[in-house]
Amino acid sequence: MSMNVDYYEILSVSRTASGAEIKKAYRRLAMQFHPDRNPGDKEAEGKFKECTEAYEVLSDDQKRQIYDAYGHEGLKSHGFRHTSAEDVFSSFGDMFGELFGLGGRRGRQQGPAPGNDLRLDLHISFLDAVHGLVREEEIQRRDTCLTCEGSGCRPGYSKKTCPACQGRGQVIRAQGFFQVSTPCPQCHGEGRIITDPCQDCGGAGLIKKTIKLPIHIPAGVDNGARMRVPGKGEGSRQGGPPGDLYVIFHVEEHQFFKRDGDTIYASVPVSMIKAALGCVLEVPTVHGAIKLTLPEGSQSGQLFRLRGHGVPRPNGRGTGDMVVELRVQTPVGLSEEQKKLLHDFDASCQRQDEAKEEEGFFSRIFNEVLGRNKGGKESGGKNTKAKSKSESGK
Ligand SMILES: [Zn+2]
Ligand SMILES: [Zn+2]
């Protein structure tokens, strides 16, 4: 675009302008054409890139000398490529902060590109997730090569302009009637290639390493939760900060405890007799055993909420509850004597008004469902339950 437009003209400065004058001129233009101030305005964006490119060259003594002596071609032959749209923001991020007093463009576009983020899938036990712990994990990642500081070039050498695209990073290919611009296959769009690769990383700029990293698993972490560990991702190739590590938690199931958010659920067995008479029941919680007092006549399926015996909430906002479901167990393998005792017991119950009332209630239900299906024919799931009840009642 600005390939053949004079950089001094773009900035409207004389060829003898001082660094301060050039900066002042650029500041004025950048303020005027900055995309943040002209959203969606392609012309302003073009002007902005143009003046940024001019400033990039004229504010750099070495580049300015080359440009003064040999012009645009001179820069190209010295391996300086034109700033791409993305680089405009990354390489000048700091200066925009200075220009606008806003801290520049935020995030990824400020400063050199950081390394890639990494993902670590961590499988942890149910109880470890509740209590949290520090666990040392071995991770494989690529760190910035110290020999070449990520550039991939043998020390003392630098990247050269890509011969395939002449530093443009794009090549034009004919597709039928159309000409399509695609990223250059030789330099992958970078515009520069490594001619003398670093011996240590083979030009990758990164070196594979296996490191041991202590992972702080917070108490109460839930299945599927994601935790960001800043700066523990892959190293940068461009002198930027390393990427981040994202830990994804996979919490194993527990054979006794179930969990929903910060509530723990468990089903606790109790004998029929103890449920009937009431008792003190020892109940395991995720924090240890506690004693739960069952009142007389506790029923199977009855729920007891144990406040504060659940999962710790993040940031110290207390602890969830545990909900205990009572599972009354019918005795099996009774001796003849025990059976007789239960028969006697049953007979004594029959005499109680309360029990009769219960019987009356169920008889009504049986009459209702049996009357609807004459002959007691089964026709669906609804009757199955009633039938099994009637069988057990005999
Ligand atoms: Zn290297
Ligand atoms: Zn290329």
Quickly list its features.
HSP40/DNAj peptide-binding domain; Helix Hairpins; 394 residues; elongated; 4 domains; binds zinc ion; single chain
Structure overview:
The protein has 394 residues and is α+β, with helices and mostly antiparallel strands. It has 4 domains: 7-109, Helix Hairpins (Orthogonal Bundle); 118-159 and 194-251, Sandwich (HSP40/DNAj peptide-binding domain), CATH 2.60.260.20; 258-329, HSP40/DNAj peptide-binding domain (Sandwich), CATH 2.60.260.20; 344-393, no CATH class. Helix content is 33%, strand content 24%. It is built from 11 helices and 15 strands. The chain has helices spanning 7-11, 19-33, 42-58, 61-77, 85-91, 93-100, 126-131, 272-277, 336-351, 353-372, 381-393, and strands at 118-124, 133-144, 160-161, 170-175, 178-183, 192-193, 206-217, 226-229, 245-251, 258-260, 263-271, 279-285, 288-294, 303-306, 322-329. The strands form 6 sheets. A 4-stranded mixed beta sheet has the order 10-11-15-14. β10 (258-260) and β11 (263-271) form a beta hairpin. α2 (19-33) packs antiparallel against α3. The radius of gyration is 38 Å and the shape is elongated. The termini are far apart. The chain binds zinc ion (ZN) (2 copies). Residues 145, 147-148, 152, 198, 200-201, 205 line the site of one zinc ion.
